[in-house]
Write a structure and sequence with these properties.
Elongation Factor Tu (Ef-tu), domain 3, 0% helix
């Protein structure tokens, strides 16, 4: 069984890495349509539309204009999530698997405390399919 450490991954906006990533999440869901009819003794369903959404949590970096700076509410972006990268400096290289899709940035929140760093959480809603690919 292959085990992947979270620290081995990264997230890009298009071709640009997002700086200072703390964590990310992607959730894929699928709707179902009921097909049960009178006389059935159990409910039956068929698959329908799928969707996906996600979030990226970062230490806020105001100098990251092409990564964090591209993640403004309402922006339509290409999100590329690499669970594990093998290139130098945490960059993707040939053979690395990744997930990609078009998304709309739906939320950006920033938090800070007197004894911590400024953090940001960015929420995205996928539009269209989330696909998996290999570099």
């Amino acid at each position: 069984m292959a085990v992947i450490k979270g620290s081995e991954g990264t997230v890009y906006v298009g071709a640009n890495p997002i700086a200072e990533i703390r964590s990310y999440s992607i959730e894929e869901t699928g709707d179902t349509l009921e097909t049960s009819t009178m006389g059935d003794t159990a409910r039956t369903y068929v698959p329908s539309l799928t969707s996906w959404s996600g979030s990226v949590d970062v230490y806020f970096d105001e100098t990251d204009s092409t990564g964090q700076g591209a993640l403004t509410v309402g922006a339509q972006i290409t999100l590329n999530v690499y669970p594990s990268v093998s290139g130098a400096n945490n960059t993707p290289s040939s053979g690395d698997d990744f997930y990609t899709g078009t998304a709309i940035v739906t939320s950006v929140s920033k938090t800070a405390s007197f004894d911590g760093l400024v953090e940001a959480s960015i929420g995205v809603q996928g539009t269209g399919a989330l696909t998996s690919d290999t570099v």
